[in-house]
Every structure is written in structure tokens, then in C-alpha cells.
Amino acid sequence: MSAPIMDGHDTVTGHIISTTIRGKNGEPKQTVSYMAERVVGTGSFGIVFQAKCLEIGETVAIKKVLQDRRYKNREL
């Protein structure tokens, strides 16, 4: 697959979103990739994408939280 990786820093559909998750019970960390398929919602806090996990084919929703510079240290 040759789609560009966006690492959660873009809002364009059709791109790959990658994240690293911690392993369970001493297992090593692993990278999981998702293909952003479409925007399903937007609001004052962010954008929600419908995406498909490239490893197992599961459809998921991913929320990209928009950060306001004024609230850089704010907890989510």
C-alpha cells in the first residue's frame, strides 16, 4: 500500500493513520495502522473518521482532537 502516513496530524480521508500501542503482559509495543475512509462528524472538539484497521479489517471510529494553542496543556 502506498498511501501516505499521517500519524494523526492531518484531516484528509484516504490516508493511513498509524499509532503505537503498548503490549499486554510484557508483550512488545506494536504499530497499528488504519485507513481513514470518511469523515462521519465534526464539532468544536475535533473530527471523527470512519476508518478500517489494516491488520484485521475491523471498522472503527477515530476522533482527532483539535488542539487550541491557548489550551495546550489542557487535559482531555
Poorly predicted tracts of residues: 1-9
CATH class type of one domain: Alpha Beta
Termini separation comes to 33 Å
- What's the alpha carbon Rg, rounded to whole Å? 14 Å
Annotated CATH topology of one domain: Phosphorylase Kinase, domain 1
CATH superfamily of one domain: Phosphorylase Kinase, domain 1
Main sheet makeup: 4 strands, antiparallel
The run of helices and strands is: EEEE
Strand content: 35-45%
Strand-pairing-aware structural class: mainly beta
InterPro entries: GSK-3, Kinase-like_dom_sf, Prot_kinase_dom, Protein_kinase_ATP_BS
Protein name: DH200=94 genomic scaffold, scaffold_1204
Family: Belongs to the protein kinase superfamily. CMGC Ser/Thr protein kinase family. GSK-3 subfamily.
Keywords: ATP-binding, Kinase, Nucleotide-binding, Serine/threonine-protein kinase, Transferase
